[in-house]
Amino acid sequence: MRSFSAALFVGLIVTGAPARSATPALALYAEGEYLEAMEAGEAEGGSSGFTLVARAAIADAELRDAPCHECLMRAEEFAQLAIAADGENAEAHILLVTALGRRARIIGFLAAQREAIASRTDDAITTALHLDPASAFAHALRGAWHIEIVNLAGRFLGRVLYGADFEEGRRFYRQAIKMDPQNLVIRYQYALSLDGYDFESERTEIEAALEAAIADEPADAYEEAIKERAQMLFDLLQEGEDDAFRERMRQFRGEM
Asked: Which CATH number covers residue 52?
């Protein structure tokens, strides 16, 4: 059995934060200087500063060649600090989900179950959607949650045990894309989730999501890196390199 959220929170909510006044930490994040951004965000303090630390820690973990449990623990810690400072900070709740989900991939299914990560992420997504119903990222995250639970438990058990449904996950993703059609990160994540579910039956939509992602303009260094991944994956599909494509998809989902 794959670890909980193997395809769920792979780099989803680490960009596109609500607009706020530029700070040194935010500028460093945009440039891809994640370690420096973390230091600056911690020094800034408060809910916004701690949120930036969590974002940068997740981006740093996502773009490394090997899993970084320490990075994700730091992201989780600072997301929780941001929530403690401002319980209505929707982005902090979303980042907490992202950190928990990626960390669950590293520690494995049984350890994640002991930490009740499935229910904790469910609660945090619900809170984020309540706080910011217009958040495309929160809708995409709910879509990813549904699809991954179905991947993990199967259609029947996923529905009975967790209330998860693949088509509901697709609906949330499509709603997120409708809400923010130029968001390349959401489209990339949608492709990852669909591939984890069923490459053969979802191939057409996977390809369309990747093609749309590479057509969008990146807003920062993180989005540029994600666009490069999407381009690589799309090229492999166009070249008929299905085995190489699936291997890369598993890598980017954190399954290897």
From this structure: 1.25.40.10
State the pTM of this model.
0.87
Residues 95, 58 contacting (CB under 8 angstroms): yes
Say how many domains are in the chain: 1
> Per residue in 178-187, pLDDT tens?
999 999 999 9
Identify whether 132 is part of a domain: yes
CB-based burial, 219-229: b 16+ in 10 Å, e otherwise: ebbbbebbbeb
CA distance 11 to 29: 14
Evaluate the CA torsion angle 95, 227, 108, 36 in order and state its sign.
negative
Assigned domain for 12 exists: no
14 lies in a domain? Answer: no
Range of the domain at 93: 24-253
Best CA proximity match to 161, nearest among 182, 146, 142: 146
Sequence-ordered list of residues with C-beta below 8 angstroms from that of 219, at least 6 positions apart, any chain: 15, 16, 30
Query: What is d(CA 163, CA 152) in angstroms, rounded to the nearest whole number?
Result: 13
In a domain, 173, yes or no: yes
pLDDT in tens, 58-87: 999 989 878 899 999 999 999 999 999 999
Q: What is the spatial distance between Cα 254 and Cα 108, in angstroms, rounded to a whole number?
A: 11
Those residues with Cβ within 8 angstroms of residue 84's Cβ, 6 or more apart along the chain or in another chain: none
